[in-house]
Design brief:
Layout lengths: L1 H37 L6 H8 L3 H22 L3 H22 L2 H17 L5
Amino acid sequence: MKGKKIMKKMFLTLVAVMSMTMAFAEGENTVATNTVAAYDMTVNYSKLAEALGLSMDQLESVEDVHKTFCIEMMNAANAPKDERKNMVDKAIEKNLKYMHYILNNSQYSKYLLLLNTTMNNRGLNK
């Protein structure tokens, strides 16, 4: 009987330790997934074209520039934390430089507003 009690205690202790480990690991994965999701900058290009009043030529150029921006942001999301801010800043600066060339002043102002709002909502402007 005494051996069964010891085995039972050991088994319950093992179950408790495993449960705590699994809960901790799940929390880590959730945080990592949420971090990467915040850097996903994909957009509906037809909605963006409508909001900015883009011509077909502008839309094509904006899509190309924005796809590059999305790749750079995902690279930043997967980079070490100490390099991430610098990578995001460079990606934004490059994106805005190209967008300013493609868009007229009115469209560019709206684009700045949309991008800034998106960055704030995702917690990337700190």
